[in-house]
Amino acid sequence: MTVRGGVAGVVDDGVPAPMVCVPDVRGGYEAYISSGLYDRRYPRPNGRTLRKSLGFLQKGGRFLDFGAGTGRYTLPLMEMTRASGVAYDVCPAACRAMADRLRGFVDEGRLVIRDGEPEALTEAHRRSFDLALMAFGVLGHIAGRAARLHLLGAVREMLKPEGVLVLGLPNARRRFRAARRSAAPLVRAGELEAGDILYTRGRAADGIRLFYHLFSPSEARDDLSSAGFRIESIEPESLLPEYAVVGNPLLGRLDDLACRIAPAASGYGFLIVARPLPPDTP
97, 168, 210, 275: least surrounded by Cβ within 10 Å? Predict the structure, then answer.
């Protein structure tokens, strides 16, 4: 389900995408991760997301870390549980970094690292996982609602009937105000969907262009329901920006405490727990 860089309107499997040319996520993240900027910006996991994920692996089991990056969640999930897992990322540089960082778990046979197209992953792992983790906006980098629903459906197919999805989504009310203003004419023209933005990471001269879709709580609920999930909980993933929370442990602990009493709509991102609906649910 790849949106080709510079191609408008369709993804490989025929799912329609926005009509504007959007940056290729694989190429963008290849540059982002190879530059070292990604790891400097996000050196460790968000404690709330990690704790939520660990809660579903207390008895071991199998997990999928979809959009694993360089393994900032995969590593503690392997270290702190006896679970086995699959770490998937579309970016070859991320997978090479994970292979070096997590080599012991791979050699032990507890971890498989995969890249390539999600369809091959789905075919190999139907009804396999107790937990699927899509942390910190992974879904938001997919252009086009139809493509996002398709991906959520593929993840649902990989979960056991009693499995759980832990999902982090960017909050449209809190993120990228300037980029939203810049995208507004394209949204009005129908070239981007409402909530879509284009932005740059790194210095302007050699910045890395990326696509993102920002969510409202109601859109998150509608999309998960349409993809065959039932939401169990939705709460703030953090109140401060992600880079501040994961870059400063003290700020991270204070932010975690504040999130326990804050409404989901106030979050920098949403932290969602959802389960697959039974196949015959209307």
Answer: 275
Element (H, E) at 41: helix 37-41
Q: What SS3 class is residue 56?
A: coil
Q: What is the pLDDT of residue 282?
A: 57
CA 63, CA 51: separation in Å to the nearest integer? 14
Which residues, in sequence order, are bridge partners of residue 270? 169, 236
Taking the chain (282 residues) in consecutive chunks of 10 residues, what is each chunk's mean pLDDT?
34 48 80 88 94 93 96 96 95 94 96 88 91 94 94 96 96 91 91 90 73 94 96 96 94 96 95 90 60
Closest by alpha carbon to 97, among 111, 76, 113?
A: 113
- Crossing angle of the two packed helices 25-34 and 92-101, in degrees rounded to 10: 40
Closest among 88, 86, 85, 89 to 32, alpha carbons compared: 89
| Listed residue (265, 281, 269) closest to 156, CA to CA | 281
Q: How far apart are CA 138 and CA 158, in angstroms?
A: 17
Fold of 25-276: Rossmann fold (3.40.50)
